Amino acid sequence: MSQIRILHIVNNLVDSSISRIVERIIRSLGTTQYEWHVGDLGGFDEMAAALKSLGAEIVHFSVQQAEGPAPQQIREYVREHEIQIVHTHTPRTILAVTRAGLKNVPHVATKHLLTKPSDRRWGALYTALDYVTLYLPDRIVPVSESMAAGIKSLPGIRDCRVIPVRNAIPCEEFYQPERRGATRRSLGFGPDQVVFGYTGRLDPVKRIDLLLKAFAEVLASQPNVRLLIVGEGSQSRELEAMSRSLGLAGSVTWTGFRADIARLLAAMDVYVQPSHNEGLSLSILEAMAAGKPVIATDVGGAREILHQRETGILIPPRAHGALSAAMLELAQSPVLRLQLGEAAKEHVCDEFSLTKMVNAYGQIYQSLTPLQKPF
Question: Fewer CB within 10 Å: C terminus or N terminus of the chain?
Fold first, then answer.
């Protein structure tokens, strides 16, 4: 049986949730039935080596290159390599593929997030663009059931075009309790301190400002708590300055970008995600797989992951008081932390296994192959 030739296109190949999803699809489905190509629009190749090691061909579709604009480069690459399916992951890549005019090649688009006007500067414009791009691909793949329901409710969207595939992770990679002691010592945490943690981008949508304010309140009554923030982003300097202004300099540890997320999760006692918009958070899944109790805002697909006070604690978005109250409760209750963490690990490894996700993508690819026409 001949291989199905698939081209993934992402904004860039930095180490991000989207790049990791692409890597896991390629790693799990392998090269027996598929020939993989991965292109980006930004020219960054942080993940290129990992993808190449899995057998993928890497190509940079950059507007800065002399070969012409990205849509033209995509069109020529698809023809030259006889690509049978193009799989995009952002509004920008959806538009690039649409402009390339690939009328005889099925186009799959994973929706990792639906933008809200409050997410960023010029958010209303980006939100309008995001919703327009939902009408362009042959198949839309939302990463949560709640997102799928929202997309299906839009006028003119046919249900058959929307196929939800929930994000998943390799659970076994994130449970590393044996590394807890050494990691905490390396970060300067004492054995009796309760460490709250966050991993991800430091951008406005993540609302780390609320986390800092809530942590300051908890610290005032529980001096044994600490906060570990892993990641970088557009607000890195602003948030560190805010931490100092709140008098938290000695109680908050900032690591910047780190690739050893499982090791750092082992050092935490509670994971906190205060975002006001999400798709289906890989960071929450990773923390649960690590056996950590999670406090998260009830946005996006969080309710599909967390069952209230069974596998985690859900709070309303932007609810500073609810966040500090949940953090204080878990700081004071080691028994509840243990119960939620154990239940979280069992739930995420049962319901969000990598096998389920990649098999679903494989079924989509197989179903679309007959739609591909000769070049």
Answer: N
